[in-house]
């Protein structure tokens, strides 16, 4: 799916969070890195309409994120840094079903889709577990299941391995690598994106590097060392 930024900018209270951005993304695995406040998360949130461009446009699969907001947002799923905060209902299976109910699916189809996505990610045994009782890795898998059950073409993850131990970090990295959906990952975990198709580096609200992982990571390390 094509994601196109055309002279897109974002201003907050007189501060420019994102300088004019012209960019076309088509790759299956896209990494985004940068120091805190660099504009990387603002860029990602433009894609699913959580942030609106101050000037310019962003299109997702040919749909404008402002003019075609609902349809464009349906093409993307977003998982925040703390995925537990976006889980609305207390039981995992109920939370997964919630998004389907909002889209008008019937009870039988909701049950089938919920069971299928739990099985897909190997977490059927967690179906009746309370979300606050899940481990960090289980929470991340539950959030991925809750988002992907509705069928978005693109999944955006913000720091998906943050605060995970090695075992769970490896689990989530393996899960991301195996997803058939297009994936964009914002991260400080450089090892996570080493095998990606393309990596973007943001600094001071600008896209400063756009290349294969090794070169982009090298640029980011130079920025971080300054």
TrEMBL record:
GO MF term list: ATP binding; ATP hydrolysis activity; ATPase-coupled transmembrane transporter activity
Start and end residues of each ABC transporter domain: 3-226
UniProt keyword annotation of Transport present: yes
Cited InterPro entries: AAA+_ATPase (IPR003593), ABC_transporter-like_ATP-bd (IPR003439), ABC_transpr_CbiO/EcfA_su (IPR015856), ECF_ABC_transporter_ATP-bd (IPR050095), P-loop_NTPase (IPR027417)
Coiled-coil intervals: none
Record's keyword terms, sorted: ATP-binding, Nucleotide-binding, Transport
Domain of life: Bacteria
Pfam families to which the protein is assigned, alphabetical: ABC_tran
Any GO CC annotation of this UniProt entry: ATP-binding cassette (ABC) transporter complex
Protein family according to the UniProt entry: Belongs to the ABC transporter superfamily.
Protein name in UniProt: ATP-binding cassette domain-containing protein
